[in-house]
# Entry
Amino acid sequence: MKKYAVFFLVFLTGCTQQSKLETTPSNALFCENISENVQTIQHLHLSAEKADEPQTALSVSADTPYGMWFTAMDYAEILNGKTESEFQAAIQERFQNAKSMGINTVFVQVRAFADAYYPSEYYAAGLSMPENCAYDPLQIMLTAAHTLGLSFHAWINPLRCQTDAQMEAMSEQYPIKQWYLDAEKNGNWIVKCGERWWLNPAYPEVRQLIADGVTELVTNYEIDGVQIDDYFYPTTDPAFDAAAFQESGAEDLSVWRKEQCNVMVQAMYQAVKAADSSVLFGISPQGTLSGNERQYADVITWCSTAGYCDYILPQLYFGLQNTSAPFADMAALWAEQTTCPAVSLWIGICTYKLGQTDSWAGDGVTEWQTDPHIPSKEITLLLSMEKIDGIAIYDYAATFEPEAEMQEVLAAERQQMQTLLQEN
# Structure
C-alpha cells in the first residue's frame, strides 16, 4: 500500500477514462429505489488549474489514511437533550476509542437530511440537536478530533431531505422550506420520493445551494475534508425529474441524469477548492458499478478524470465468499477504474454485518455468521494491494457498541484490526 494519505492539488488534464463495467450475476439484487432504504438499522446504507503535462497529486501526509464513519443516528443518544459538557465527553470518548484502534481519520456526518449540526445560513438545525442549543456540535467534534491528531472530514448528504412532518416544522427562513411552499418549485426543485423529499440536481439554483453549503463549511471550520456518500438520484422512475428532462431537450434520461450529477459534484469540488485548496473533497459511492449506474453516479468519470474529487471511497460491504460481488474482485475492479493520478482510492469495509445473514451475497449468505474475522481478513488483503491508498470502517457504533450477543466477537476483531492498522 502506498504510504500517502491526502491530496490537495489536482489537474484537469492527463487522466484517461475507462468505460468497463463489471458483469453482475443474475442473483445480485440491488435496490431500484434507494428512498426505501435510508440508513435504517438493517441498511446502514446508505476551479482546478490546467497543466500542460500530466501531474500527480501532492502528498501532504506520510501516513496511510485509516478512517471510520460516525453517523448522525448516534446523535439521538449522545447529543439530543445533552449539555455541552456531556456531548463533549461522549464524542471525546468515541474519538479516543477510534484512535486507540489505529484510526487516524474520522468521517463525521454533519448534514444527513438537509439538517445541519452547526449554525447554518442555508440549513435548519439538525433533527437531534438540543432545543435552543447554545453550543456548536461541529466545532466541539472538530476540536476533539484535532486535539487527538485525527483528520476530520465533514460528511454530508447533498440531496436527501426530510419527511412531510419535518418539512412542515422547518422555518421558512431556509431555501428548502421556501421551495417546499412554492407551487412551481415543489415537485420540481424539491421532489417527494417515498417518505422523504429530495433535491433535484437538474436545476442550477439547487446546485448553487449545495455548493454554498459546502463553502459555508470550509470557510467557517478548519476541517480537513468534505465527503459525500452514496445517495444520488433516489429512484429510476422518470417522473422524478420529468419536467426538467423535457425542458433540456435531451434524449437519453440515463446520460442526462449522469450529467446533472457530474455538474453537481464539480460544483462541490470547486467550492471546496475555492474556499481552501488544501481541503480534500471525497466521494463514497456504492460498492458495485452497476449499483452506481442505478443512481446515475458516474463513478467511472470521477475515478479517471481530475476535477471531481481528491479521493474515491467505494463502500465494499461484501464478504470474501460473496458470489454476487466478491470483495477481492470488487477491490481489484475499483483499482482498475481509478486511473487518474490526482484521485486516490480508499476502500470502505464494514463491521455491522457480523453475525447477520447477507441476503444479497449468493453462496456467501451465511458467511458473516460463520466467520467472525471477515473485517480483519479484508484489511489484510487491502494492505497487500499496491493501488489501495486508504481504508475506512463503517461504522463506530457497529464496531464499538454492538448488540450484546456480538460484543465478545467485536472485541476480539477490534484487537485484530488494531494490530493490523498500527503495524502498517
User: Anything to note?
Assistant: The chain is about 35% helix and 15% strand.
